[in-house]
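fold-stage: in
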Amino acid sequence: MRVWTHSVLLLLAACNPFAPSLGEGDPYAHLLGDPTTIDGYFTAFRSAYELRDISLYEPLIDSAFVFLYTDFDAGIDREWGFIQELESTRRLFQNAVGVQLQWNQVITQQSLEPHVRTRVVRSFNLSISLEGGEVFRGDGNVNFLLVRSDSADAWRLMHWRDESEL
């Protein structure tokens, strides 16, 4: 009886019912998104924007990243790279008091190299609130080229063509 009681106490001492075991994975993955899947990547992207958290956003962007958009005033396409993307997004997150991003239907999803390169064109609605009550709204399509080293890695955004008229 004494050995049994000691064993039960030892077992209970090693168990913390308030902390998930290591084998259970990230308990917040469903909220923040699992970027090893395409759907999870878009959830993670939305979470980074809505939480305005550059530390969640940066791992979603590939170091060879290129952002391409149309400058309608000048009538030309313009682009910037990884550093400019992080800096402009950091400024957006710092100056916004609220961001809402809604992903809508996937227009096209094409696997260019199975499991390592995928192009996704998807529609969105975006609302950015600034202090003072000013709100910017936009919608359109993003044209993303997502890449990764192998099928177990997280997707990263290498090329973003903005197909909206914000």
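fold-stage: in (second)
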Amino acid sequence: MKKKILILVLVVALVASMAVAFAGCNKDKDRFTFGLICLHDENSTYDKNFIDAAKAVAEELNVKLVIKTNIEESSACYDAAVDLVDQGADVIFADSFGHEDHMIRAAKEFADVQFAHATGTKAHTEELANYHNAFASIYEGRYLAGVAAGMKLLEMYPDATAYKMGYVGAFPYAEVVSGYTSFYLGAKSVMPAGKSITMEVQYTSSWYDPDKEGTAALALINNGAQLISQHADSMGAPNVCEEKGIPNVTYNISTKATCEDTYLIGSKINWAPYFKYLIEKTQKGEAVEKDWTGTLTNDAVQVLEFGAGVSDAIKNAVAEAKAEILSGERKVFDTATFTVTKTDSLNTAATVDATGKLTAYQADVHTDPNFQIIPDTQVVENGIFMESKFRSAPYFDVRIDGITEINN
């Protein structure tokens, strides 16, 4: 009899412990879950920027965060998305351009999960209720960083009449072209009459490769660049600039602590506003925008801290330009501020007047199979190239005068 009682007690205890365990699992499952897919890990300044924002928002909103790092732009992205769905993800976000088709595949399969993607171009044509693109008008931040760069060169070489910058780019995509052009236009905007500035761009054919980025920066410096900026994701270029004593303008992170002698300023997309928007909309069961574009106004575009010893004149010039962008008085891609050369193979989608001013441009807004460049949308309105109006991802791919691509 005692044995039966003991067995009964053990069974009751086991059932109770299982109930507690299942209750814990159900509680965790019921908690809103945000999945993040990253091309690299925190060693990449680009991916770290997403990871930091995701962690901050997850903590603020008290949601579960599951991060997948080093996910290639291949079916590995789809597999990662499926695994996140299996883990109970309510929202899944991927951070690299080549993830898009794999995210769309997953979105079609899992209609109850919201999928979103940075730098993507297909949400407005796929028209899936649960698939979205997001980006920001980072060209505004790069323009302001360019203002600081131009002012720095004027201070360093007051007697010069011509200045030269270098830019380390990943690929000759519109996202990179839009960024380096806005940076250049910012620097050009502060040049007094009688002074000019040019810029050379060296591509690495990689989003993250410290060696290639450092080599590209060194080549640009050896070719006469007096200041370097980049759209690449490692410390390769900043470290070379620090070694050579060349001012550097960063992207995504400040290197003030590690490159204290050469760091000038930087810019980044702050993804926290979008992550918060995406999660809260999904929690409420409300529709999420197909193409969300962050700006300086909603703090999605940020100018990073100034480097040590940056003058008040530089700080004031950046503040003035920022105020004018916010008020609408200054437009980054005002066609009156640059000229364009059109040839049989260059800027073929452009309409240019006798003075070289861009009067019309047919941009490739609607992504075609195999990413063929097929112009489909007129994007110049009232003398302004309307970047990010027709989709969130950049489509400014005009090659303007004053900028030379070394290895495109």
